[in-house]
Design a protein that fits this description.
With 437 residues, the protein is of the alpha+beta class. The chain folds into two domains: 41 residues, no CATH class; 318 residues, Up-down Bundle (Outer membrane efflux proteins (OEP)). It contains nine helices and six strands. The strands form two sheets. It has a four-stranded antiparallel β-sheet, with no helix packed on it. Strands 3-6 form a two-stranded antiparallel ribbon. The N terminus is likely disordered.
């Protein structure tokens, strides 16, 4: 039943989430569903949506023509009599004028807004990937503690078994009570560790629920197998993908595109705009002859002279060029920074992978064998009880270290995905089955 439910959840996430943003999919169905909910409702992400909508409205504003202007006027009215029919040139005028922008100017304003939208979208994309990484970090830290708890409970059962054996030997006059008391102290310390783990687990769940805005409580799926996502890509390929898809680099490139559009707009602002007007002038009849006087129509075109503000336009262009140069340097700096971070994390991954292999294929199996041998030797009085406890404690420490290496490996993968801006090609590698009893 568990496999069926997990399969259905994975299918839903793959079809409805992965298609929209491939960084969502992690191979953990509960994690993927939680990420989907967070991305849909997280305030800072929705704030970017509101900014984009604001820019959409700004585009409508800056690409629209000005309203035509209606004018009413009285021309050549004598101030001694204020009679409209006294002078032949006295007119009642009505006019209509319209500003006509230079070719391409309004369209270029719209392009600048579109480029600004791209910057906001890349900022939003950067925020999404940052949040996804933080969620994954909390998620893997939570499960790391859960696995540690499982190993400690296994150790408790084993320790209790050793205590029972020691008591039986003590009852027949073999061994000593001090060793049994020491074992019981170790058992109490394990219980203390479980209490501390539960406390840390609650902290991680609270952090996860914060991303859900506390609208619902996150319930992680029980992990049946201890696995990790083994990376299958080399450094050169990852660097190439990073240069193309890193959210910060894409945001800076979008900023450059915006500045290029601004340059073109500044150039277009050097062109003259025109105001075209049409006026109709009505005259009264001649009072002496009674004849109707002809009305007048006048047409006018006016234009601004942009060379008067040449210094201003030059300063605008210099400002944009300086900002563009600063952006180029930022791209170079960020590229170097991300490349260094990527190589460092790849080194960490390789180191952790070697340690995982060492612990799973050598150290833990060998220590298990050593523990079984020690138990047999204790039962035949070849070693003392405290030495048996020492081997058991070492085995527990090795198993916990192995789990930490595994989850740190997955956390590093999540950090690399944030740097690269896309999911990595990985293969799920199973380490061991887990005992939840």
């Amino acid at each position: 039943m568990y496999q069926l439910v997990s399969g259905m959840m994975f299918f839903l996430v793959h079809n409805f989430v992965y298609a929209e943003n491939p960084l969502y999919l992690s191979g953990h169905s509960d994690l993927d569903l939680m990420v989907m909910k967070v991305i849909k409702n997280y305030p800072s992400i929705k704030a970017h949506d509101a900014t984009i909508e604001s820019l959409n409205q700004s585009k409508i504003k800056v690409t629209s023509w000005d309203d035509p202007k209606l004018s009413l006027a009285i021309a050549n009215l004598p101030v001694d009599t204020f009679n409209f029919d006294q002078e032949a040139m006295t007119q009642k005028k009505i006019g209509l004028s319209q500003k006509i922008y230079a070719s391409g100017k309004l369209q270029q304003r719209g392009k600048v807004i579109e480029k600004r939208k791209d910057v906001v979208k890349e900022n939003q994309n950067q925020e999404i990937k940052k949040i996804i990484k933080m969620i994954k970090v909390q998620y893997f830290n939570y499960h790391s503690l859960q696995i540690e708890k499982i190993f400690i409970k296994e150790s408790e059962l084993l320790l209790q078994k050793f205590i029972n054996i020691a008591r039986k030997k003590y009852e027949v006059g073999q061994g000593n009570q001090t060793s049994i008391l020491e074992a019981e102290v170790q058992l109490s310390k394990l219980m203390e560790r479980i209490i501390n783990i539960d406390n840390k687990t609650d902290v991680h769940l609270q952090k996860i629920n914060r991303y859900l805005e506390y609208k619902e409580n996150f319930t992680p799926v029980i992990i049946e197998h201890l696995t990790y996502s083994k990376l299958t890509e080399n450094e050169d390929h990852l660097i190439s993908r990073m240069l193309e898809n890193n959210p910060k680099l894409r945001q800076l490139q979008s900023k450059r595109d915006t500045l290029q559009a601004k340059k073109q707009l500044v150039s277009l602002n050097r062109k003259s705009d025109y105001v075209v007007g049409l006026n109709y002038g009505q005259r009264d009849r001649d009072p002496r002859t009674g004849n109707k006087r002809s009305d007048f129509i006048s047409f006018q075109v006016s234009m601004n002279l942009p060379f008067v503000q040449g210094r201003k336009r030059g300063a605008e262009m210099a400002e944009v060029r300086a900002e563009d140069l600063a952006t180029i340097k930022s791209i170079e700096d960020q590229t170097s920074k991300f490349r260094s971070e990527l190589l460092t994390k790849m080194t960490n991954l390789n180191s952790k992978e070697k340690l995982i292999k060492l612990y799973t294929t050598a150290i833990i199996p060998q220590k298990n064998q050593s523990l079984q041998t020690a138990l047999s030797n204790y039962q035949t009085d070849r070693i003392d009880f405290l030495f048996l406890l020492k081997i058991e404690r070492e085995l527990l420490g090795f198993k916990i270290n192995m789990a930490k290496f595994i989850f740190n490996y997955d956390i590093t993968i999540a950090e690399l995905e944030e740097i690269i801006g896309q999911p990595l090609n990985t293969v799920t590698t199973r380490v061991m089955e887990l005992n939840h009893e």
